[in-house]
Task: inverse folding
């Protein structure tokens, strides 16, 4: 089957929707399908990365601002005319806007499927604090959703939120949990871990967050909890991997709390160095909190699980579907600093419990949250609705 994946977020951009699309593309390719990803071009060197993938990557230039949606629409129509795919997957919020506009002027004579991560709901339909989406595009997006073959939500929480706003979608909506590419997170040598430990001067236990630096990720509350723990554990280190607009505020909080020797802002890192950070850490922590950004799943929790690390996470959105309290981690009220402190102290003082949770997390990723299972389940959803065999070909209706 010829499959087109259309996205406005893709590696080397490090957002969750981009990682999801790359994983889905690889999984579908491993199942024997002919896959093309239409994605933005970035300033970073991408030709070598694209050439290494088991699928075709077609890069398009997207200007910023108001022209992004229009340019994306033209890019999608051009790609569709060239490829004539049997199935199209639209996999992130920006791509959904552009595809909705494209569908007004161009009839796609083949089925398409939409992936909903969570942020799309409040962006398109006004759930959360962003109550007033662009009035002109909202009915266009509704029409695009209503005409899709299937809508795949990455969690039950995302499904419930979408159906709360658009109940008429009904059985069109299904849940397929995210999966990670285990090949992208290979084993790390003790030598690599040792070099990284020396680099960040971490003689003791290490906490890790991997996230875009925005308030919703709850890093500020981790710092508040750390300020209470550090006097008892001066060798404790907290590493934050990622970049974002909240960096200045977080650095000021570190200074105000006298945590300069305990906190490392690593910024953006390579995939190999990210693997080393996961291997190095003792606990992965990201207590995301409710906001106008909906935490639909949280791929980083599964990534931590791939390295057998216990997780401390906020009880919000779809997070409890990947972090099961007491099994592979601890769920907390993300606004409860006392609860965060107790969870950190509990895992640091009970290494047996931490190891057990980490092993459970690794097993869960291998068995449930991997890209091959995600690709198979996604195909099953769309093929059941279209009435074709899961591994079959043939043109779409």
Result:
């Amino acid at each position: 089957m010829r499959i087109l994946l259309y996205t406005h977020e893709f590696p080397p951009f490090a957002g969750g929707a981009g990682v999801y699309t790359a994983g889905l593309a690889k999984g579908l390719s491993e199942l024997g399908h002919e896959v093309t990803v239409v994605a933005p071009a970035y300033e970073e060197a991408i030709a070598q990365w694209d050439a290494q993938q088991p699928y075709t990557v077609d890069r398009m230039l997207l200007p910023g601002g108001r022209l992004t949606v229009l340019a994306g629409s033209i890019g999608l129509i051009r790609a569709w005319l060239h490829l004539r795919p049997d199935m199209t997957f639209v996999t992130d919020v920006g791509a959904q806007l552009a595809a909705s506009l494209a569908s007004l002027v161009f009839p796609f004579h083949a089925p398409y499927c939409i992936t909903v991560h969570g942020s799309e709901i409040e962006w398109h339909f006004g759930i959360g604090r962003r109550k007033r989406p662009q009035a002109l595009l909202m009915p266009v997006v509704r029409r695009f959703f209503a005409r899709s073959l299937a809508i795949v939500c990455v969690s039950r929480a995302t499904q419930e939120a979408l159906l709360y706003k658009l109940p008429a979608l009904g059985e069109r909506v299904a849940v397929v949990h995210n999966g990670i590419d285990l090949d992208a997170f290979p084993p790390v040598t003790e030598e690599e871990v040792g070099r990284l430990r020396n680099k960040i001067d971490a003689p003791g236990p290490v906490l890790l967050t991997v996230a875009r630096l925005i308030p919703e990720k709850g890093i500020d509350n981790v710092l508040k909890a750390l300020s209470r723990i550090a006097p008892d554990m001066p060798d404790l280190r907290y590493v934050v991997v990622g970049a974002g607009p909240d960096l200045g505020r977080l650095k000021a909080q570190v200074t105000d709390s006298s945590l300069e020797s305990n906190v490392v802002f690593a910024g953006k890192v390579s995939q190999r160095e990210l693997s080393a950070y996961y291997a190095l850490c003792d606990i992965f922590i990201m207590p995301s909190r409710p906001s106008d950004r909906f935490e639909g799943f949280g791929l980083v929790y599964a990534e931590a699980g791939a390295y057998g690390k216990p997780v401390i996470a906020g009880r919000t959105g779809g997070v409890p579907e990947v972090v099961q309290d007491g099994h592979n981690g601890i769920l907390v009220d993300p606004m409860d600093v006392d609860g965060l402190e107790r969870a950190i102290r509990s895992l640091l003082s009970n290494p047996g419990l931490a190891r057990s949770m980490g092993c459970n997390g690794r097993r869960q990723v291998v068995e449930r949250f991997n890209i091959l299972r995600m690709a198979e389940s996604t195909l099953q959803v769309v093929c059941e609705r279209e009435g074709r065999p899961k591994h079959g070909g043939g043109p779409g209706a």
